[in-house]
Specification:
Elements (H helix, E strand, L loop, with lengths): L15 H9 L5 H5 L5 E4 L15 E13 L6 E8 L9 E7 L4 H4 L5 E6 L2 E3 L2 E5 L2 E5 L14 E4 L8 H17 L17 H9 L4 H31 L11 H9 L6 H15 L5 E6 L5 H14 L3 E6 L2 H15 L5 E5 L7 H4 L14 H7 L5 E6 L12 E7 L6 H9 L5 E6 L5 H7 L4 E5 L9 E7 L3 H13 L3 E5 L14 H12 L4 E4 L5 H12 L5 E4 L12 E6 L7 H8 L9 E7 L4 H12 L3 H12 L1 H5 L1 H4 L13 H17 L25
Parallel strand pairs: 4-7, 10-15, 10-16, 11-13, 11-14, 12-13, 14-15, 17-22, 18-20, 18-21, 19-20, 21-22
Antiparallel strand pairs: 1-9, 2-3, 2-5, 3-4, 5-8, 6-7
Helix pairs in contact: 4-5, 5-6, 6-23, 7-9, 8-9, 14-23
The structure holds adenosine-5'-diphosphate and magnesium ion.
């Protein structure tokens, strides 16, 4: 048996209680324990100086506790420990106050007289320098100068495990790691595929107890590569599963596409033409298309989608467009009608709110159904002889009756459709061509990770003749200045979005809400000129509000992020985003894409009351660049991948090496390794059958064979 498989309960230096605590977080074996990587390191050969002022980044300080008391009362009770620098304040203030709120047990951990190491961000409050909730470690009195685990070296800091303190966990891992060296011949922790040519055990030890921060980085990179390899193996597996299906051959006939092209008042951009060519090639091939159309807001994805859907229809197949929200579905519906009705194409809108009334609304193209009471099933069958475009929300996915003759599905993704949903399409038993559109440009490394199973078409060129957008960040501006600016734009005949982070006031978040602001804006601009839209409105209410704004009946629209995607009102040239620090960068970029759609100069004003340097730094990225890819990179750096993608669907939540996610080279390497594996053993049944264990079936398309 490999040493790595040893159960921790069999390790003599661990108490029963300790192995229980570890088991509670899923750490059962030696291998599990050594895979619990440090979340960060502290260089305890050289501590930070006690600062004189607040710090933007955490500091690591050491000193003696000169006073420790419980303070405050009721809800704001906290425990406070004052730490004095060993050098008596020769450098800097020499004194830091540490506070823990609602953690009464801290009084049992830290007391006057202790020597401690504290880690955290320093803030200034009431003339004092304070770290709230620092990570703290007590240095034992008998700590030997030669002690090499906890002091005078680079020390690993682990994610806390309930029942075992940081120090003890470090000791346990150190002991087990040392045992590991002794069992080196026994191949302690195998990985089923050699991803690197360094020794895995030494990389593992270096990850826990590195001799330098650089060597820790190098060692961690190896394990990041293992993780990315596993991810890519799954991605390529899935891609192969998909491509193994027989697809339809569509797109031979291009009459409609040509008619559409000639009806456009503008020429398509080269990027649009290139993408359409790539799509035609996919559709004509007997393999099912599985393609990502990636392009910034306003790059013209909708027109590429339109063209592809016309190709499907020309071949006699239905085409469906799935949008993440109802507003977006409706927006698409209007766009499609505008461009395609002149060509005599059938378009059906299918959302929760449009189960019945679609017929009435689009009576021109669906006159046969105008008086009919049938639900959508019969609506579809009536038209089965005639190919059509179905537009709807993702609810479409769960309605197999709509998919009788589906040739093409366009998914307007906005990060809300995942692998699972795509797999769902295959489960339906049909195998349409799939085109996924994503409006948020994501870094290349993430594209390969999340969309690695797709071919990519890139719209890297904006249509000409769009108005310029000026973005400005304003800290604590005067309301009068804002109101005057809005009034001036409205007087010019333009329209404005006034965006707020919340629908209603909330106790927990200190920010003005859309509902409160709506009343104020009505007073400022005249009640009849202002509309209000947010996610809590009923679908038909939302639609009415949008209609009023689109037609220019209302001049200003107080909104939450429901307008983030798809809304297209070229006359709106002003967007004011309140409490901008509460939004993500990519989110603001999306919002900003709502303006600059007409020929007028546009303004995006970001308002914030925040004094936090991080917030200002974050928001100023938007002032500097309008390049979605740059913004996505910055967002990724500042927030990490989980936040950006929504952990649930990204499959990245369990990535231990999020810090490597922007490392395109590393991910390329992982992809190449995975490709190689499948080249020699496509089904993982021969030389690489051991890798079958790494394939997560739950994500793979079901009913494949
Ligand atoms: P996206 O979906 O990528 O955000 P859209 O397809 O909605 O972009 O296009 C954004 C705007 O640009 C629309 O108003 C559309 O009419 C216009 N547009 C699209 N392609 C072109 C083009 N080639 N030339 C001029 N305008 C275009
Ligand atoms: Mg669009």
């Amino acid at each position: 048996m490999f040493y790595g498989q040893t159960d921790l309960s069999e390790i003599p230096s661990l108490s029963g209680k300790e192995s229980q605590s570890l088991l509670a977080v899923g750490i059962q074996t030696v291998a599990n324990l050594l895979n619990h990587f440090p979340k960060r390191y502290e260089d305890r050969r050289q501590f930070d100086r006690f600062p004189n002022q607040a710090t933007a980044k955490p500091v690591c300080l050491t000193g003696g506790v000169i006073d420790a008391t419980t303070k405050g009362f009721g809800k704001t009770r906290f425990y406070e420990a004052i730490i004095m620098d060993g050098d008596g304040g020769v450098f800097g203030s020499g004194k830091i106050t540490c506070r823990w709120f609602n953690m009464p047990f801290m009084s049992k951990v830290v007391a006057a007289g202790h020597q401690v190491i504290a880690y955290g961000k320093v803030k200034e409050q009431g003339g004092r320098l304070i770290i709230d909730h620092p990570e703290i470690e007590i240095i034992r009195e008998d700590e030997d100068e030669t002690e090499t685990i906890h002091l005078n070296r680079i020390v690993p800091i682990y994610k806390n495990i309930s029942g075992i303190n940081q120090r003890r966990l470090r000791e346990i891992i150190h002991t087990v790691a040392a045992d590991c060296i002794r069992h080196a011949d026994d191949n302690p922790l195998p990985f089923p595929y050699p991803v690197a040519n360094t020794n895995r055990t030494s990389d593992l030890l270096e990850t826990h107890f590195p001799i330098s921060l650089e060597s820790a980085h190098t060692a961690r990179r190896r394990f990041a590569l293992e993780d990315f390899f596993t991810l890519q193996l799954n991605v390529v597996w899935q891609r192969n599963q998909y491509l193994a299906h027989q697809g339809r051959i569509l797109g031979k006939k291009t009459t409609l596409l040509k008619a559409f092209y000639h009806s456009l008042p503008f020429d398509l951009t080269n990027a649009q033409k290139r993408s359409i060519k790539e799509i035609i090639a996919d559709m004509r091939s007997p393999r099912p298309m599985n393609r990502l159309l990636q392009g910034d807001v306003g790059s013209g994805k909708t027109f590429v989608a339109l063209a592809s859907m016309l190709l499907a229809i020309d071949s006699g197949a239905d085409a469906a467009l799935m949008a993440p929200t109802q507003i977006l579905a409706e927006q698409h519906y209007l766009t499609f009608r505008k461009w395609l009705e002149p060509l005599g194409i059938n378009i059906v809108l299918r959302t929760a709110a449009h189960k019945k009334d679609t017929q009435a609304e689009s009576s021109t193209d669906l006159s046969a159904e105008a008086s009919a009471k049938e639900d959508h099933c019969s609506l579809i069958t009536r038209h089965s002889s005639e190919a059509k475009i179905i537009i709807g929300t993702h609810a479409l996915l769960y309605d197999p009756t709509l998919f009788t003759d589906l040739g093409l599905v366009v998914i307007d993704e906005q990060h809300k459709f995942g692998v699972v949903q795509r797999a769902k399409l295959i489960e339906q038993g049909t195998l349409p061509d799939v085109l996924v559109m994503t409006a948020t440009p994501i870094p290349r490394s993430l594209t390969m990770t999340i969309y690695g199973d797709l071919d990519v078409s890139l719209l890297d060129e904006k249509p000409a003749g769009r108005g310029k957008i000026i973005t400005a960040l304003r800290n604590k501006p005067k309301q009068k200045d804002i109101t005057d600016f809005v009034k001036a734009q409205l007087k010019e005949g333009r329209q404005a979005y006034l965006v707020y982070p919340l629908v209603e006031e909330s106790d927990s978040v200190k920010a003005e809400s859309a509902i409160t602001a709506f009343a104020k804006w009505q007073k400022r601009l005249g009640a009849e000129n202002v509309g209000l839209i947010h996610g809590k409105l009923r679908p038909e209410e939302k639609e009415a509000v949008m209609d009023d704004f689109r037609s220019g009946k209302t001049k200003a629209l107080v909104a939450t992020t429901v307008i983030e995607v798809g809304v297209d009102v070229p006359n709106a040239n002003l967007m004011i985003i309140h409490h901008a620090e509460r939004f993500g960068l990519a989110q603001i970029h999306q919002l900003r894409g709502r303006i600059g759609r007409g020929e007028h100069k546009s303004y995006c004003i970001l308002l914030t009351d925040s004094k936090l340097p991080e917030s200002i730094e974050k928001l100023s990225v938007l002032e500097k660049t309008a390049d979605g890819f740059e913004i996505a990179e910055a967002d990724l750096r500042l927030r990490g991948p989980g936040d950006i993608l929504g952990t649930a669907q990204s499959g990245l939540s369990d990535l231990r090496f999020a810090d490597f996610i922007t490392d395109t080279e590393l991910i390329r390497e992982a992809r190449a390794l995975a490709d190689n594996v499948f080249k020699t053993d496509p089904d993982l049944t021969a030389s690489h059958s051991n890798l079958r264990l790494l394939i997560r079936e739950s994500d793979a398309p079901q009913g494949a064979h």
